[in-house]
Design goal:
Oligomer: single chain
Radius of gyration: 18 Å
Strand order of the largest sheet: 4-5-8-7-6
Number of strands: 8
Shape: elongated
Largest sheet: 5 strands, antiparallel
Helix content: 10-25%
Order of helices and strands: EEEHEEEEEHH
Distance between the termini: 39 Å
Length: 176
Amino acid sequence: KGSEIKINEGIAVDSAMRTSIPNIYAAGDVSESYDVSLGRNAVNALWPVAVEGGRAAGANMAGIAVSYDGSVGMNSIEFFGLPVVSLGLYKVKEQDGSFEELKICDTRENIYKKVILKDGLMVGAVLVGNINNSGVFLRAIREKIDISSFKDRLLDNNFGYPDIMDLVKDKEKLYV
């Protein structure tokens, strides 16, 4: 408070986790960095995001140029034995026609899956019951993989990492 550090929802940082003041960096719950699914800066106060941002900030402070690609808002919880995972956008305004929602609901199996797409890219997902593909969905969101050619298979129980393997940018770096 009272400093010249730019603050929006949180402390605004660039891809190096630098604030608006030279040689001052921020990471963790206070930082507002690029959110991949929103396409803009946002606060994602999550432990994995803090670790990733802190790693990039620390490297840059040490003189090793590292660019932080951004985060994805996510949550995982279990309600009465029913696992739930949300990744990126989980809700869009009905009047916004630029998004496409794919979903299935099987009340007999306690399964609900929703995927939100924009311009051939997955920008969000909600999985209830069967959360097996959550890591694959997270990777598709993070790497902005064009899934338009196989979007009809996204909610299939057999969909998985082999479906996107040839499209991932960094095959050595796993998010799953």
